[in-house]
Design goal:
Layout: H1 2-7, H2 12-17, H3 20-26, H4 32-72, H5 83-88, H6 91-103, H7 108-124, H8 131-144, H9 150-153, H10 166-180, H11 186-195, H12 200-212
Helix pairs in contact: 7-10, 11-12
């Protein structure tokens, strides 16, 4: 039978597409028993090939979809604090949320407490302060408390100048106080910022703070 395949130029692709009438035409000189067995085996083999192709295509589609979702889905930064989560886990934070629901505004004392809670979380998690972190916190604050103004918490005044606002001020005042009391060695603060590749203006700010001591 192999000679028939060779003479008729039949390859695997041809076999995978062969129909019953073509089998009979190809093997018309063979006994019917052989033809029937060959057709039965051929149909079973074709079904196996089709099932394998379907499974392979499904796996490829699933892999492509997974890759697209991985690329499209933004990765959450380990330094991206969630203001709502921080406040919800704090007794004072919960009181701030309740106060805003009732009065739809914050006063200066509550703003100071809000900033204290957030900066305490930044320090407790040893997260280096950066422009992007401060701005992210400010954006979340004004999103949660609609009557608040972003500039109160973060205001960028130039490319080479340190941002202003309650968040930056509180962070660096806290760091300076801890350095003054010996809780944080100055060298550790410097190394932390350099290792985390923070913007140059932050390192410059630390140097300015050291000069005041």
């Amino acid at each position: 039978m192999l000679l028939i395949y060779v003479d008729q130029l039949i390859d695997m692709t041809t076999l995978s597409r062969m129909k019953s009438e073509q089998v009979y035409k190809l093997l018309n000189n063979f006994p019917y028993g052989i033809i029937f067995k060959f057709e039965e085996e051929l149909v079973q083999w074709q079904n196996n090939i089709n099932n394998l192709n379907i499974a392979t295509n499904a796996n490829e589609m699933s892999l492509k979809k997974s890759n697209v979702e991985t690329i499209a889905k933004p990765h959450k930064s380990s330094h991206n604090l969630r203001v709502d989560e921080v406040l919800a886990l704090s007794t004072q934070g919960s009181l701030i949320l309740d106060y805003f629901k009732t009065h739809n505004k914050l006063n200066d004392g509550i703003r100071a407490t809000l900033v204290d809670i957030l900066i305490a979380q930044v320090l407790s998690q040893q997260i280096p302060m950066s422009v992007s972190l401060a701005e992210s916190l400010a954006n979340q604050i004004v999103a949660m408390f609609k009557t608040e103004v972003k500039d109160t918490y973060f205001m960028k005044i130039g490319c080479n100048k340190n941002p202003k606002g309650k968040l930056y001020s509180k962070y660096y005042n806290s760091v300076r106080n801890m350095k003054n009391t010996g809780l944080i060695p100055t060298t550790i603060i410097k190394n932390k910022i350099i290792n985390d590749n923070q913007p140059n203006q932050i390192l410059h700010h630390i140097k300015e703070e050291n000069g005041k001591n």
